[in-house]
Design brief:
The protein is of the alpha+beta class and about 180 residues long. It is built from five helices and ten strands, in the order H-H-H-E-E-H-E-E-E-H-E-E-E-E-E. A six-stranded mixed β-sheet has the order 3-4-5-6-7-8. A two-stranded antiparallel ribbon has the order 1-2.
């Protein structure tokens, strides 16, 4: 017979890893990262909170520390994009600037890059200077109007993300944004 730790241990470690790595996650984001395990994850969140391994903040976000650092809106939006692809993802982690998240799916490397309003030229320049074998980029923007100003190789697509986690995808086609 399996013990509770054997049954839930991997998910508990995963939750702790994700909350620590992404700094602040909503319950909906955590449930999205572990599809088809909603009840287990909800139970584990309660358990980990009682054990003071994670903390639920007043805004409903789970953090690894009682006094979280400043909320990273771009990272939160990137997590919602990751949730959309989670069934195909083999591994995910935070990325180095400009990537918020890096993940591996279908034998390819992807980076989710958040471009805040007014940072289009900077991010275009940084992404264009990548050498060797650049990853596929998924670009998260505040508004679709930004897309026309972003140029870089290997962009797989663009998206906007609402605070509730609704992701709308776009692609450029012959100079136009679809």
């Amino acid at each position: 017979m399996k013990t509770r730790d054997q049954i839930y241990g991997q998910e508990a470690l995963g939750i702790l890893r994700d909350v620590t790595m992404y700094r602040a996650l909503s319950e909906a984001q955590l449930l999205g990262l572990y599809p088809k395990k909603q009840k287990q994850i909800q139970s584990l969140l309660s358990f980990l909170e009682r054990q003071r391994r994670i903390f639920k903040q007043q805004d409903g976000l789970y953090t690894a520390v009682q006094q979280p650092e400043e909320y990273d809106r771009g990272l939160s939006r990137a997590v919602w994009v990751l949730v959309d692809f989670i069934d195909q993802v083999d591994f995910h982690s935070t990325g180095d600037f400009p990537a918020k998240i890096i993940f591996f799916a279908n034998d390819e490397v992807y980076e989710i890059v958040y471009v805040s309003w007014g940072q289009e030229a900077l991010i275009s320049h940084v992404l264009s200077t990548q050498t060797d074998d650049p990853p596929h980029y998924i670009i998260v923007v505040d508004k679709p109007e930004q897309i026309a100003s972003i140029e870089a190789p290997n962009i797989s697509g663009f998206c906007t993300v609402t605070p509730e986690g609704q992701v709308q995808y776009y692609q450029k086609e012959e100079g136009a944004c679809l």
